[in-house]
Amino acid sequence: MSARVPDPCAACTHPDAAAQARQALPDDTCVADATALLKAVADPTRLRLLSALAAAELCVHDLALVVGASESATSHQLRLLRAHRLVAPRKVGRTVYYRLADQHVTLLIRNALEHAQER
């Protein structure tokens, strides 16, 4: 005979609302991926890079000048942002230009900065 798993919402003050919230939770893989993405954005230099790219597509040299970092440090941060699919490269000859990967990233950065400015 198997043990019965208790309903965690049974002891809740508002069991219907708690059950609805529990069903809306993303799966563990989605939570892990979203957490990694937010950690990637949660670095001041990377957030500055993403903010600059929200305004314009830029090459590594120009990005480094805009955010006040070395080209090496900028390239390193861009590799991390690429790994998390936050930026996308475009190569023209020997120059690589970067842009935000998609509208989701644009909204994420815009909303985070607008939220931070609301006090």
Automatic annotation (TrEMBL):
Keywords: DNA-binding, Transcription, Transcription regulation. It holds the Pfam family HTH_5. GO terms for molecular function: DNA binding; DNA-binding transcription factor activity. InterPro entries: ArsR-like_HTH (IPR011991), ArsR_HTH (IPR018334), HTH_ArsR_DNA-bd_dom (IPR001845), Metal_resp_trans_reg (IPR051011), WH-like_DNA-bd_sf (IPR036388), WH_DNA-bd_sf (IPR036390). The keyword DNA-binding applies. The keyword DNA-binding applies. Residues 26-119 form the HTH arsR-type domain. Gene3D superfamilies: Winged helix-like DNA-binding domain superfamily/Winged helix DNA-binding domain (1.10.10.10). This is Transcriptional regulator.
